[in-house]
Amino acid sequence: MAEEEKSELYQAIVDGDFDVAGEEAQTLVDNGLSPTEILDNHVIPAMGEVGDLFEEGEYFVPELLMAAKAAQEAMAILNPMLKQAGVERQGVVVIGTVKGDMHDIGKNLVAATLEGAGFEVVDLGCNVAPEKFVETVRERAGEKLLVCMSALLTTTMPQMKATIDLLASEGLRDKVKTLVGGAPVTQAFATQIGADGYSESANECVALARELAASWAA
Ligand code: B12
Known about the structure:
Methyltransferase, Methionine Synthase (B12-binding Domains), Chain A, domain 1, binds cobalamin, globular, 9 helices, 5 strands
């Protein structure tokens, strides 16, 4: 985002100013912006800059945490709006950030967006072991199930494969569709580990999830 385009919300997230972030998100809503616009043009780019500052050694973990809290304050305003849509029920999404990984902002965004798009969302939180995904799938067997996994660390990406492999060895692989995402995840990685889908963003994830859910009826 060019310097002159940076909004107060963007700046509040980068500065980790969480009170202001919540207020500014509300102001943008009051000004008529949709929650998706606010996420795509303000919250997500601001977290991108925070990541760059961390990489450059300008920011350390405390600044990351403050920025994450500010982003969450903004999302607390936006989430109910994302969930409001009230469309036809599409299937059940079992979602979590994989074992060893505590990053949950992107996962929460994907969960809220899918919920808004008509999916029932079972959110297992972060640091979710393959066994936990499998246990939940077993509990919900027989429904249109999408297992969505998020990873933000290159070191935790192998947990996605471990989960898919465990679903297979437990005889559950063909009962679910698996979707993976998170900043370090790519389509090539998704294909390599045998996932059914990958998407770069929460928005694209909806189209993909709908497509996969529709394949049950086909
Ligand atoms: C905020 C943050 C944190 C916060 C997390 C707070 C929280 N509650 O989530 C805190 C401070 C806790 C943290 C800790 C650490 N972090 Co950190 N963190 C970040 C940061 C700055 C932003 C992540 C974020 O929220 N992005 C915004 C969201 C909206 O984007 P997203 O998660 O990518 O999600 C989008 C898509 O990827 C996609 N998506 C996400 N999940 C899914 C799932 C599915 C199924 C689909 C389809 C799509 C999808 O949709 C989302 C919306 O469009 C990133 C930098 C970056 N640019 O990514 C580093 C980053 C991920 N962290 C990093 C590191 C190293 C760490 C620590 C190891 C630091 C440390 N030394 O302690 C710890 C690890 C803790 C752990 N065990 O998990 C590195 C990872 C490097 C690597 N190669 O693995 C990064 C890349 C920073 C960097 N440039 O070095 N971090």
